[in-house]
């Protein structure tokens, strides 16, 4: 049975990426870019497991800079390693995740194409998007490289501070 081959570690590795795509598709990107409010369920009757969840938690991003996640696809592992390293070296991003083994299906010059690719997930400052885009265009082998930016609307303040301190101004 296929399910018996799934390990809890395998499931854990996939959930953060799936969760991120679910958050984006549910419209969390429409939230204000500098604050993110999480509401917890109201207190239930006594004896309920949900007791204690009764206040609103606010994560403010006042001490960080507006940040984004940028998606870039590359044709293979070598191209991904090279581009990711050059982006971080130039301090155009704090971190680049390389996700191997994706398959892209797209329309190009009137025909459906299918290619194996690698996805780069780049975390950077919003103010660096133009410089990052130019860097990708200058160092990418595609005629029209994918560069798609999504806002980061909340998260771990220490991580976002590290992102700010690891990139150029």
From TrEMBL:
GO cellular component, one term: chloroplast
MF annotations from Gene Ontology: copper ion binding
Keywords: Chloroplast, Plastid, Transit peptide
SUPFAM superfamilies on file: GlnB-like (SSF54913)
Domain of life of the organism encoding this protein: Eukaryota
Cellular location(s): Plastid, Chloroplast
GO BP terms: response to metal ion
Record protein name field: Divalent ion tolerance protein, CutA
Natural source organism: Helianthus annuus (Common sunflower)
Gene: CUTA
């Amino acid at each position: 049975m296929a399910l018996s081959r799934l390990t809890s570690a395998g499931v854990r590795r996939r959930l953060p990426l799936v969760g991120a795509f679910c958050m984006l598709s549910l419209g969390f990107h429409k939230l204000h870019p500098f604050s993110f409010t999480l509401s917890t369920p109201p207190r239930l009757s006594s004896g309920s497991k949900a007791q204690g969840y009764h206040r609103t938690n606010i994560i403010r991003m006042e001490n960080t800079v507006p940040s984004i996640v940028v998606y870039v696809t590359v044709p293979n592992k070598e191209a991904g390693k090279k581009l990711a390293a050059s982006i971080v070296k130039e301090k155009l991003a704090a971190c680049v995740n390389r996700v191997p083994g994706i398959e892209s299906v797209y329309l190009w010059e009137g025909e459906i194409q299918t290619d194996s690719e690698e996805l780069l997930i780049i975390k950077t400052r919003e103010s660096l998007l133009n410089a990052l885009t130019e860097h990708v265009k200058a160092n990418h082998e595609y005629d029209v490289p994918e560069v798609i930016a999504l806002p980061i609307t909340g998260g771990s303040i220490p991580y976002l501070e590290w992102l700010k301190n690891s990139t150029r101004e």
